[in-house]
Amino acid sequence: MKRMSGTLAAACLLLMATVVKAEEWKAFRVKPTVAAVQPMTGLVLWSDSEHAATAPIQLEFCYLPYSAVMKGPESYDWTAVDRQLAAVAKRKHQAILRFWDTYPAKPSGVPAYIRNSPGWRGKTADSEGEATGFPDWGNAAWQEAHLAFFKAFAARYDKDPRLAFLQCGFGLWSEYHIYDGPFESGLTFPDRAYQARFLNHMAACFKQTHWMISIDAADAEIGPFLQDKKLKSLPFGLFDDSFLAKEHPKVNAPRWKFFGADRWQTSPGGGELSYYNDRDQREALSKKGPNGESLESASARFHTSFMIGNDQPQYADMARIGQVGRAMGYRFRLDSAKRSAKAVKLTFSNTGVAPIYYDAYPAYAGAEAKTSLKGLLPGQKRTVVIPTKVKNGNVTIRSTRLVPGQKIGFSVK
Predict the structure, then answer these.
(1) CATH number of the domain residue 171 falls in
(2) Assigned domain for 14 exists
(3) CA atoms of 292 and 41, how far apart (whole Å)
(4) pTM recorded for the entire structure
(5) Residue 335 is part of which domain span?
(6) Domain of life of the organism in this record (predicted)?
(7) What is the DSSP string of 128-182?
(8) 20 to 30 A from 93, CA-CA: which of 22, 25, 42, 412?
(9) What tens digit of pLDDT does each residue of 258-306 get?
């Protein structure tokens, strides 16, 4: 028994030594690859901006009426969408896309074959001082066509890396309000029953691309969320069309809170710098902002990933535009890089204000980790182990949601 015990003890010691040897990790140096602004984050310019190709941005905003694509019952011409996405991707950027049904001074964005059908009750009325076409949201044919459009859009673009985020809604600019013009539930604006149907439909159609609605949907007189509380559980993101406005603390901030203080942890938040007055735009990127808070501070509080600021090249230099862009969204830092004889172990943290909302996999020498950095919250760490025997390789972060020329960077601790 003593000899067996000794043999067993020796075997255990040998096993322990083998395990220790296999887990001997040695630190190695990695060069930082952090970019000026990370993909899917930062200040956003419209795709037709003269600065879109040269500004330190990663995202471009594109607007289209439904009529640009919808040509007949379940008949679509995607040329306008493809042209926009291709142009944006050529500049090594991604698009934020929004379709509209009502735009001041323009005819309704509803396709002609619907507007010319029997029983259509669309109207023309003043908004923003201009004759504006308002749709008939009580029209059953339009409702069905609207739902079918987004189903077809998802089937075509849900996995398209050229599309970062899709914004949707109703009313003026599809921003979920008609503050100037005839607001009539069930006519110029969809009733709550259709809104609920639409929101559930969007959640069913989109499995990868993140879709967003305006925070104004929180308005009890407009949105369906008080009547159907389950709708809040749907995975939509939020956009705020008057960020940094003087009224923001009293009007906008409660609407962000209405949809859940932790929604940003799984769904993106963004918006547009306020146009309430000239000062809001002129001082938007100043150190104290237009009304006492900087864009960096507000972005951190609301965990925003992007902000549309198309007029900002008029008021701020490109260095400042890049600076505020780096203050939004995620920022990865490599805190530890170690290798053993059989693997590399990397520990990343998020030093930004929001997570990345798409899969992003650390890689070493061409070998990719099975663990994604998606959802890594600010201040959190995540360790990945990549099996490899390569001693001299580069560390990168890969994602299938990037367009050619884009790279997810990281700093090094």
Answers:
(1) 3.20.20
(2) no
(3) 24
(4) 0.93
(5) 25-33+330-412
(6) Bacteria
(7) TTEEEEE--TT-HHHHHHHHHHHHHHHHHHTT-TTEEEEE---BBTTSSB-SSS-
(8) 412
(9) 999 999 999 999 999 999 999 999 999 999 999 999 999 999 999 999 9
